[in-house]
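Input structure tokens:
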């Protein structure tokens, strides 16, 4: 029975000594780098627990994109932004004017974890499959790569729309895996559709190997993810489900409450159109959002942050710095 409810050099002191008679000139150069990414044995954090299921098939050899050196995108700013953030990778753009307000390592190819699920949702909705169809979690949906867990047990069933809701709002991995398995042609066809859609969107540095992001082989760049956010915004259900604060599903006599993996959702000072969080050890903590703030619409991408709160603090830092700049 199924139903629905909702990273100084220590300031490395570089001394350049020039002998000119008895004159000695000392220069001090401080180089700031990001802290090394903290390793965490568990897959947790600002998003829901990800599943020990087979939604993540054994990872194939590393895709060439994962080893590609970073290249500068054509629209990367010529001068450093005055905006300061702590995430290792960041991109902020005005959605209405396409003005890049911040670009930090934005053309670096990196794992994107559960940001993947925005593309998963796009492929599901593009297929126009009945949202009321019942999908059952199977062993094929369990994560056998990273050993994560899920609240959806093997054998439990939900309709397609509830699976989509949980995948987007609470980053439920088995739900995303089941959605891909129930696609015409199965999961291989679904993943092929994900990559085809990425190509259509011009996401030339993006590659997917599974539907939920529990792999370091799902890779992209901040510039590519900006395109993904723009595309996801066009789908009302993705906007609605990704920004729901909480949602519950009933399975038999059990009622399972879920909450949004993005702590900014539901706050009165944040107007978020669409969003998705992500985390695995290789990706660091990530978030992408389209937000309305201080009279402008911004697309924010923060990737490879240390600590589950840094990405959200970066979003607030950007808002604060932009507001201060407007009043100067």
């Amino acid at each position: 029975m199924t139903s629905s409810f909702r990273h100084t050099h220590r300031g490395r002191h570089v001394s350049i000594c020039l002998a000119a008679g008895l004159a000695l000139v000392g220069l001090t150069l401080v180089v700031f780098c990001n802290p090394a990414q903290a390793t965490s044995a568990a897959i947790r954090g600002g998003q829901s627990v990800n599943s020990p299921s087979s939604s993540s098939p054994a990872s194939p050899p590393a895709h060439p994109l994962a080893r590609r050196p970073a290249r500068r995108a054509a629209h990367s700013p010529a001068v450093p932004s005055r905006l300061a953030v702590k995430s290792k990778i960041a991109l902020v753009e005005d959605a209405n004017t396409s003005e890049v307000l911040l670009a930090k390592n934005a053309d670096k190819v990196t794992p994107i974890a559960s940001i993947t699920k925005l593309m998963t949702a796009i492929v599901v909705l593009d297929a126009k499959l009945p949202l009321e169809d019942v999908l059952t979690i199977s062993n094929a949906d369990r994560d056998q790569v990273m050993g994560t867990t899920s609240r959806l047990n093997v054998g439990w069933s939900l309709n397609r729309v509830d699976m989509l809701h949980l995948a987007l709002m609470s980053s439920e991995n088995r739900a995303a895996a089941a959605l891909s398995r129930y696609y015409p042609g199965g999961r291989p066809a679904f993943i092929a559709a994900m990559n085809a859609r990425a190509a259509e969107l011009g996401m030339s540095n993006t590659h997917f190997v599974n539907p939920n992001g529990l792999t370091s082989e799902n890779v992209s760049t901040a510039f590519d993810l900006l395109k993904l956010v723009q595309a996801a915004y066009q789908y009302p259900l993705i906007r609605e489900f990704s920004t729901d604060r909480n949602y519950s599903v009933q399975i038999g006599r059990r009622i399972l409450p879920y909450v949004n993996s993005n702590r900014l959702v539901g706050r009165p000072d944040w107007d978020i159109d669409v969003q998705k969080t992500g985390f695995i050890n290789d990706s660091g903590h990530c978030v992408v959002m389209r937000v309305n703030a201080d009279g402008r619409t911004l697309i924010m991408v923060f990737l490879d942050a240390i600590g589950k709160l840094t990405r959200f603090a970066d979003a607030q830092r950007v808002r604060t710095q932009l507001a201060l700049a407007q009043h100067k």
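Helices lie at 64-67, 116-126, 160-169, 173-181, 186-200, 222-232, 236-242, 310-326. DSSP finds eight helices and twelve strands in the chain.
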